[in-house]
Amino acid sequence: VGAGIFLGIALTLAAGRTYIRVVQARKFSVDDGFFYLAVVALITGTITCYLDIPYIYVPQNVDPSTFHVTPEFIQFLQQSLRFQAATCSLLSVALFSVKLSFLTFFHGLLRRVRGLMIFWWCVLLFMVPMAIVFVCIIFMVCPYFDERVLGE
After folding, report:
1. Distances from the Cα of 61 to the Cαs of 83, 87, 101, in angstroms?
2. Tell me: the pLDDT tens digits for 37-95?
3. What's the whole-model pTM score?
4. Whose CA is closest to 95, among 29, 31, 41?
5. Contact at 8 Å (CB) between 51 and 83?
6. What are phi and psi of 21, to 5 degrees?
7. In sequence order, what are the residues at sequence separation of 6 or more whose Cβ sits closer than 8 angstroms to the Cβ of residue 16?
8. DSSP 8-state class, residue 59
9. In this structure, are residues 104 and 34 in contact, taking their beta carbons and an 8 Å threshold?
């Protein structure tokens, strides 16, 4: 429920920003592109999170001493892992797209101050590899989504 509430707040603010950009400013820039990428990634990440809800709590509620692992349960766990990987990656894309949106917005403001532009480039050079790692880390840790995930 909380994710849906925060998604609603984010979409309301995004609609407000879009209105201001279209009606008031009548122009779009690079930071808007990163912003809308973040909005799309947030929406799809939240959807995959909600799709994963039936899968999240079942493994924790199973008593291993009385439960027999069936092929259906293995498929259930694999589907849960797919949803979790998609959610983590999409929400990481949303997070770093917002950061890139702010960075591109501030680039125009800081362009004339050399010291701040050096700092801006340092932040960008640090953030881009971190974004790649954050988006791809789930696939680095667990690169497959079939029976091999069990480690057998």
Report:
1. 19, 22, 41
2. 999 999 999 888 888 887 777 766 666 676 676 777 777 777 888 888 888 899 999 99
3. 0.78
4. 41
5. yes
6. -70, -40
7. none
8. G
9. yes
26's torsion region: left (phi>0), alpha (psi -120 to 50) or beta? left
Q: Which two tokens stand for residue 129?
A: 């590899």
Which helix (H) or strand (E) segment holds residue 89: the answer is helix 71-110
- Tell me how far apart the alpha carbons of residues 49 and 113 are, in angstroms, rounded to a whole number: 42
CB-based contact 151:83 (threshold 8 Å):
no
At 115, the amino acid letter reads G
How many helices (H) and strands (E) would you count in the chain?
4, 0
Token duo for residue 90: 């999409």
Report helix angle 71-110 to 114-141, nearest 10: 170
